Amino acid sequence: MNNKKFKGVTPVISSILIIGVLAVVTGIAYQQGIPMIQKHIDTTTLHKAEKFLRELDNSISDIARTGGTKELIFDLPGEIKIDPEKNTIEFSLKTGGSIYMRGGFICLNSDGNCNLNEGVWGKDSYSIIGAQTDLFDEYAVLTTYKIMYRNLTRGEGYNKKIYQLDIVTSKNVTVVGSKNSKVLIEKIGEERGDLIKTVIKLDII
Known about the structure:
Helix content: 25-40%
Number of helices: 1
Radius of gyration: 27 Å
Largest sheet: 6 strands, mixed
Strand content: 35-45%
Strand order of the largest sheet: 1-11-12-9-8-5
Number of strands: 12
Structural class: alpha+beta
Shape: elongated
């Protein structure tokens, strides 16, 4: 009689144990899986941001050489800012982690030359591109991508020529955009002399 009672109870206990074990395993998998998924999302976003940085830089360089206009979509979860006074373009993204070391500007120029003072005409690019990652809060970091422009020189003494790429906006004030904003690029002029200046108009709509 007692044995029959125990036989009925045993499957119930077994089921409870199995459910308990499954709950623990699921909880562990969830705790480990979510950070891995978030890390993958952050890495993908930052690689996409670097790709946009290079595309924007190349587009401005091409327009400066050949003229014309171009339009790019800022398809990133951050804010883009064009500052004509500082002659810079930058955008920032907040993520849980980063693919860059924290605390300093990391040069992303293909030739590795990030000398801000000046470059050599025919060898260096006008632009210096890079990224800087800083702690945002306990759970996130802020990565800022930046394009800065330097003068290029050719020759020496009386034969020295200085080449400059000058960024302007519609009212020559800082303009800001967010995700899905359009960045408009247009070459509007060139000034020649000892200082050869190429003027590029940028706008955000």
